[in-house]
Structure formats: C-alpha cells, structure tokens
Amino acid sequence: MFGVRLQDSFNRQINAELYSAYLYLAMSSWFDSQNFPGMASWMRIQAQEEQQHALKFYDFVQERDGRVILTAIEAPQGEWSSPLAAFEDALAHERKVTGMINDLVDLAIAEKDHAANVFLQWFVTEQVEEEATAGQIVDRLKVVADNPVALLMVDDQLGKRAPEPGAE
Ligand code: FEO
Fold it and tell me: How buried is 145 (Cβ within 10 angstroms: 0-12 exposed, 13-18 middle, 19+ buried)?
C-alpha cells in the first residue's frame, strides 16, 4: 500500500522529471540551431536520463499498488542568450529538483514509509552528481567567455558524452 500523500507527491515528481526531459530537449534543439552539436548531444542524453528518472518513479508507484496519474507538462523556454545562460538555467533547475527530492524524503520519513525512503536515496545521490556536473560546465563556460575557438573546444568535449546504459 502506498499512502495518498506520497502517491500524489510521487505523481508530481513524475511530471517534474518529464518536464526536466522536455526542458533539456528544448535546450538540445536550441544548441542545434546555434550550431553547437556537442552541447545538443549532451542535452539530448540528459533528456533521456530524465525520462529514465520519470520511469523509476512510475515503476515504484506501480510496485506499491499505487496509481500513476499523468498530468500536463508545462512548455519549456525555447531560446537562450548564450550557451552559458542555458547551462546556468540547467544548474538552477537541478537545484530546484534537489529541493523537491529532499521534500519527498522528508515526507517519506514523516509517513514512516521506509521503502519510499530507501528508493529516494538513489535520487539524493544522483542530484549531487547532477548539480556537480552542470556546475562544472557553467564554470568552464565562464572561463571561455566569448572566445569562439574555446567555445568550440568545449562543444567538442561535451559531444563525447556517452548515453547511460539502457538510456538509448
Ligand atoms: Fe532527474 Fe536532473 O534530475
């Protein structure tokens, strides 16, 4: 059995993870339009990871005999002023998601749902990595500033990111 409050919150998190996928896909499309194929590929892989996150929540709700309720996904922004601005938005978004995950942990503890708490620990760890990765790219892009050659080198590096196993 899954408590109603946790079920509602997990359903909201499914929506939030799918929104994350939508946001990163929008960024991927924008990077493509700006001729940064490496960053476009990086964001596309990130979008795929977010879909996997949504499915992890989806499967957990199902396994607990809960009911998955899918709701409308908000349209993401479609334009950014620079690669740095896009990655700064990605970092801000990940920080927001971290807050949501922490709130879910608080709720699982309050509801004494140990299985939900254990499940959420994977996301607690994942968010540390997500924030660190986005933060490192933001720092790199700040150093590069408007140097086109250096920007293309960063694009090239980010294009080397490989999809997580099972996320293709
Ligand atoms: Fe699913 Fe990027 O957090």
Answer: exposed
Please say whether the beta carbons of 15 and 52 come within 8 A: no
State pLDDT tens for residues 65-96.
Answer: 999 999 999 999 999 999 999 999 999 999 99
pLDDT at residue 168 tops 70: no
Q: Collapsing DSSP states into helix, strand and coil, what is residue 65?
A: coil
Determine the distance separating the centroid of ligand 1 and the alpha carbon of 49, expressed in angstroms: 7
pLDDT for 146 equals: 84
* C-alpha to C-alpha distances, 107 to 81, 102, 112, nearest whole angstrom: 38, 9, 8
Domains and CATH numbers, the chain: 4-72+80-158 (1.20.1260.10)
Question: Which residue has its alpha carbon closest to ligand 1 atom 1?
Answer: 50
For ligand 1, the distance from its centroid to the CA atom of residue 102, given in whole angstroms, is 13
CA distances from 112 to 2, 108, 116, 145 (A): 11, 6, 9, 49
Q: Which two tokens stand for residue 114?
A: 């140990």
Left, alpha or beta for 65 (phi > 0: left; psi -120 to 50: alpha)? left
